[in-house]
Amino acid sequence: MTQKTAGIHHITSFVGNPQANVDFYAGVLGLRMVKKTINFDAPDVYHLYFGNEVGSPGTAMTFFPSEGARKGRIGGGQVGYTTFAVPVGTLEFWEERLRKLNVDVHRTVRFGETYLRFKDSDGLQLEIVEREEGRPSQWSFGGVPAEKAIKGFGGAILNSIAPAKTEELLVNVMGLTKIGQEGDLVRYRSYGDLGNVIDMNAAPMGWGAGGAGTVHHIAWRASDDEEHARWRENVIAHGFQATGIVDRQYFNAVYFREAGGILFEIATDAPGFTNDEPFEKLGEKLQLPSWFEPKRDLIEQNLLPIEVRVLDGDQA
Hints:
By secondary structure, the protein is of the alpha+beta class. The protein has five helices and 16 strands. The radius of gyration is 18 Å and the shape is globular.
């Protein structure tokens, strides 16, 4: 029987200046910075996590910000658009808010839904859609009240260099259901209520190039460690080269690159971001895994200072 993922766990992207990253995702979008840590593979680079009040699976947008990072090129082998879901009736609020904060935004329609499209400060392609499903966020910050806050992911648009092979993976390995095609986009759905709607460009796309303003990987949900181990076995059985199980402190991870060029991760729902700091203090202190603690002073000296702050546009 085909395993089925509930949907997106998190999406991780490359960006430039870390304070600009915080100002956009906390300041403009009103997400909570639930974790301030480092890229375990490059400890001179932050790894910042934003999401709902606890960064629940299906809400966590994460970043590797690096001042002066070269600009990437969006294309094949990447997530093309990251989609956020907001409560029904709030799209006008978000359109007005983005315009007020000098973010260029326009509307587009697909599969009967209206989307707001815009870019972050590094050119990462984003969109907002209203959805009934998904638990409301309990987080309020700046000019974003909880009742209008982003719930989490609505889904994503995938850019594949080999769409037929990516479709085979999505349906036969990840357990998504193909539900239709409109123009150049094919739509798939998982059984979850957040991060559950995946669109893919039906035509092959030329390779993109990693760098600031591009997605590094998309992670899919595994409910627990037992299911996670089965996911790894299943991926390997279908001919993909998967990593071992990697401890990321807040979830366990397995990585593999699918035939369309997109880096996939499968991540466990637990233990979550309260693993090393209490709910009330999430994101306030630089959190390091135990093996990096002896080098804390050096690591902190190499990182630019950042703060979560209310934007001027929300103080007027």
